[in-house]
Design brief:
It contains two helices and no strands. The protein has 92 residues and is mainly alpha-helical. The protein has one domain (2-88).
Length: 92
């Protein structure tokens, strides 16, 4: 991008030995504006990526918590089954 911009700038400056200052200035200003727009787009994309990473981290935490919760539910059910089996055993 930079090499292309300098090539075009040199062509505009060296047209038949004359220097077109206004054309050079307009060209440079348009290039600066274009680069500023690209910079803003990149910043916006970066912020969106950070939000996405944060959301994915939260989803991971919730998935792990749900997985641990299934284990505790199973343990609780087993404890209830164990307690019920103790009650069913006839005392001697």
């Amino acid at each position: 991008m930079y090499l292309n911009m300098t090539r075009v700038l040199k062509q505009r400056l060296c047209t038949c030995g004359e220097i077109d200052i206004e054309g050079c200035t307009r060209f440079c200003e348009s290039q600066v504006q274009q680069l500023e727009q690209q910079k803003q787009e990149l910043i916006s994309i970066f912020k969106k990526q950070l939000r996405l990473i944060d959301t994915l981290k939260r989803q991971k935490v919730h998935a792990e918590a749900a997985h641990l919760l299934t284990f505790t539910e199973q343990d609780y059910a087993e404890a209830l089954d164990w307690a019920a089996s103790i009650r069913e055993v006839p005392s001697i």
